[in-house]
Amino acid sequence: MFTPTRRLVLTSLSAAALLAITGCAGPYTVGADVSSYGSWPADRKPGTFAFDRLPSQQQNDEATKRQTALEDAAKAALEKAGFKPAADAKSADILVTLGARVTAYDPVPWDDPLWWRWRGRLLSPRYGYIGAGPWGWRQDPFFDRRYDRAVAVLLRDRASGEALYETHASNEGISAGDALLTPLFDAALAEFPAVNPKSHRVSVQAIR
Known about the structure:
The protein is an alpha+beta fold.
């Protein structure tokens, strides 16, 4: 028989378990380093847009597929900034060129000047530690491969070809991050049409 106190404890544990199960779903915050350039006319409305692909972005099926995925990831950010899709490129007010890269690299803790040895471990405030244990060599999660992710957006006037606005957003983490391209584009265009060439942090909301 459960006492009221024990029932309350069990209920709290069940709620905590449910929270743990569902905690990976829902909104979360993504931070990115953003810089922007250009001179968008103060009296010009965003207008309609169409994507403009470079020759290298459509040279084969793989490149075309990749570029289509980028355009899908950037479309919502452009619409949040006030743009609307055009019926075709010939009728668009703005042509949008996109770029993205994801670079994988392995962290090297001994490049950090603050690491030191302690009880057989390599200990670093930046990377955590690795060390030997009863089941062999233990690797801290901070030693996982990391990825540098970046996107770029260029807005050009279709009629004149003039580049009006350019923006970049980047961040890093332990996942390759295709799912993070959408919030990266959101961050890149979050301050449009304001220009700030100095890299600064912008946070946006994303949905898992």
